[in-house]
Amino acid sequence: MDTRAPKQKAPPLTTDCHFHIFGPFDRFPMSPARHYTPPEALVPPYLRVAEALGIERMVVVQASIYGTDNAVTLDAISQFGLHRARGVAVIDDSFDAAALQRLHDQGIRGVRFNMVSGNGTPEDQLDALARRVAPLGWHIQIYADGAKLQEIGPKLAGLPVEVVIDHCGGVKAALGVDHPQFQALLRLLDSRRAWIKVCSYRASSAGSPWADVGANVKALVAAAPDRCVWGTDWPHAQMKPAPEAGLLLDQFFDWVPDSAVRQQILADNPARLYGF
User: Is the pTM above the cut of 0.90?
Assistant: First the structure.
């Protein structure tokens, strides 16, 4: 899970906007309804990766293996400290206003709808939960493939909260940036209601070293440099071979050569989105 150092460290206040913590499983047992079983991925090895890359802030994303039990995510935020960490939770409509406020006080700033791995928030609760979290200033985070995102894009643009899209929108690189799925993603960004995580490798059609996604990342950055954020997606669950985070940062630097735009995506945009 460790990584070699990148060719160049990230700029100050770089934020890893997407990674997961798994375990320890004796303290945080996985949900019986999970769709995969990963090895443990704990805070100390993540911090070694963050140090190697120059990451100073971090956003822990609740993984589907835990369902709506956010204890592992909240524990990780507590270990990192609220001065440098936030989180995205998985909830359902059983969470009342008091429960949401407790999550907010512990650093949660969004709700993730996982339409790929399941075992999370039911899609039919999207509208109701968006209304419920809007007073807290939270966003809705969507993990979906390109076809699903094309289907629900207009609905997402109409929600009363900001929307954050995972993994380059799930549009496979081989489809090309002129494909209707990618164009639907651009329209969603044009609505000014959406953000995009340019964590790229899961959108690759070619596999390792995942370089074919460069055109997608470049197009997304050109369309909305003020609404792109980046993340390692550590520990790269279900990916064989798994990428090294240092390589992923190198690719980002290659695809985004402008230092001012890098600064926006790696540090300034996350500070606005997550309230650092």
Answer: yes
